[in-house]
Design goal:
Helix content: 40-55%
CATH architecture of the largest domain: Alpha-Beta Barrel
Protein name: Xylose isomerase
Largest sheet: 8 strands, parallel, barrel
Family: Belongs to the xylose isomerase family.
GO molecular function, one term: isomerase activity
Organism: Aplysia californica
Bound molecules: D-xylose, nickel (II) ion
Catalytic activity: alpha-D-xylose = alpha-D-xylulofuranose
Number of helices: 16
Shape: globular
CATH superfamily of the largest domain: Divalent-metal-dependent TIM barrel enzymes
Radius of gyration: 24 Å
Low-confidence stretches: none
């Protein structure tokens, strides 16, 4: 905590002490009830869903099944609003800012009340978000065990499940030069030990996936870096994790989350195609899929939906961190996704691949540091969920009517017969193709019709 402690602008909890939240029947979000579906609500009614109706069936599945929303613990329950230029702004009345187990328990219990009131069935966390790191590995593991016991209890009581767990291999100073790609084998061993425990915990809590995000796996300078050795070590790290996963019988899907930079200048898991190439190079493509975060995709210089499209095209899309950035900024702002057009482009892909299960749409998002009310935690998630519900309906209409897909198919029709069919099956030669051109001359011009396709998309939004 900083020396400057802001006071909350929220009145619902005024007068409560931290100890009040230790009681079994403590209510963390006073005055906020379970968020209802209210399609006729007006523009300023904010604690209602106007589009997300979990049981509504869209193309054979309920909205809840298609969307599989998940709340992330780190931003929503550990975020303080601090930035490199400013102190924390977010006051959570149960959080005394300490690194104690009591505080960790309160945060977790607040979390489950939040998931339930929101009506979200999944959550995600890093090991170090939920339990304090101790002074050595054994102490950290003991802290984690105690908190996992409480998480198990809360999951059973509420029916909220774990979409994925992950290990924080980037915050502690020991990882400053990387975790699995650290030039020091001792650090590699530490990261491995931490992942071993992370997998035990994931198994215990029934995690449906397990994520690896390599924020420090990369380099700031090639001058001091042996890139080939580091990538070989990273592959070894994954092989060891796969072996342990099988040994303990953890069936969750392993996911790598690509990101090109931030905090490291260049990260090895640059984007979807880089990770797919890495997995294939090291023979790991059957064991690991991708968790795509569109904000990372735009940081890599691609459009919002690019990596979702690419990963899905190769059957490698496992899950999505559905936050967004400001395209006019060069960093990961982790904003809530509120853009119906972008969300529709994403849902189009999910519909085509039949959903994301056992993955989901994880809100790796944080409220702006100026959004200081407890209510803002709800409003942000509700807005994003409504955005995706609208997008699902738009994408379903696009699918039902098949207008766009038929016209895309039409662009490739020359591959269905004649010389095109031979190219398609790989059953031709350069000589044969030369002969074809000598016979048929110059291809006639065919419009790409980009604006026509853009107009068609807008029709459905
Ligand atoms: C950071 C990443 C991170 C992962 C989990 O940019 O998005 O939050 O999702 O470690
Ligand atoms: Ni993420
Ligand atoms: Ni991110």
């Amino acid at each position: 905590m900083s020396s400057f402690a802001p006071t909350s602008s929220d009145s619902a909890n005024s007068g409560a002490s931290y100890a009040d939240f230790d009681k079994d029947d403590a209510v963390f979000f006073k005055g906020i009830e379970k968020i209802p579906y209210k399609p006729d609500a007006g523009p300023s009614e904010s604690l209602v869903y106007k589009h997300y109706n979990p049981s509504q069936v869209v193309r054979g599945k309920t909205m809840e099944e298609w969307l599989r929303f998940s709340v992330c613990f780190w931003h929503t329950f550990r975020g303080t609003g601090a930035d490199p230029f400013g102190f924390p702004t977010l006051v959570r009345p149960w959080d005394d800012g300490s690194n104690t187990m009591e505080n960790a328990r309160r945060r977790l219990r607040a979390g489950f009340e939040f998931f339930q009131k929101l009506g979200v069935k999944y959550w995600t966390f890093h090991d170090r978000d939920v339990a304090p790191e101790g002074s050595n590995l054994s102490e950290s593991n003991q802290n984690l065990d105690k908190i996992v016991e409480l998480a198990q209890e809360l999951q059973a009581k509420t029916g909220v499940k774990l979409l994925w767990a992950t290990c924080n291999l980037f915050a502690h100073p020991r990882y400053m030069n990387g975790a699995s790609t650290n030039p020091d084998a001792h650090v590699f061993a530490y990261a491995a030990a931490q992942v071993k425990k992370g997998l035990d915990v994931a198994l215990k809590l029934g995690a449906e996936n397990f994520v690896f995000w390599g924020g420090r796996e990369g380099f700031h300078s090639l001058l001091n870096t042996n890139v080939r050795a580091e990538l070989d070590h990273m592959a070894t790290f994954f092989r060891l994790a796969i072996a342990y996963k099988k040994k303990i019988g953890f069936n969750g899907v392993f996911l790598i989350e690509p990101k090109p930079k931030e905090p490291t200048k260049h990260q090895y898991d640059y984007d979807a195609m880089t990770v797919i190439a890495f997995l294939r190079t090291y023979g790991l493509e059957k064991e690991i899929k991708l968790n795509i975060e569109p904000n990372h995709t735009t940081l890599a210089g691609h459009s919002y939906e690019h990596d979702v499209v690419m990963a899905s095209a190769y059957n490698m899309l496992g899950s999505v961190d559905s936050n967004t950035g400001s395209p006019d900024l060069g960093w990961d702002t982790d904003q809530f996704p509120m853009d119906v057009k972008n969300a529709t482009l994403l849902m189009k892909v999910l519909l085509r691949q039949g959903g994301l299960q056992p993955g989901g749409l994880n809100f790796d998002c944080k409220v702006r540091r100026e959004s200081t009310d407890l209510k803002d935690m709800f409003i942000s998630h509700i807005g994003a969920m409504d955005t995706f519900a609208r997008a699902l309906k738009c994408a379903a209409k696009i699918f039902d009517e098949e207008v766009i897909s038929k016209q895309v198919e039409e662009r490739y029709k020359t591959f269905q017969s004649g010389i095109g069919a031979k190219i398609e099956s790989g059953d031709t030669t350069l000589e044969e193709l030369e002969e074809y051109v000598l016979q048929n001359g110059e291809p006639s011009q065919i419009s790409g019709q980009q604006e026509h396709f853009e107009n068609m998309l807008n029709y459905y939004l």
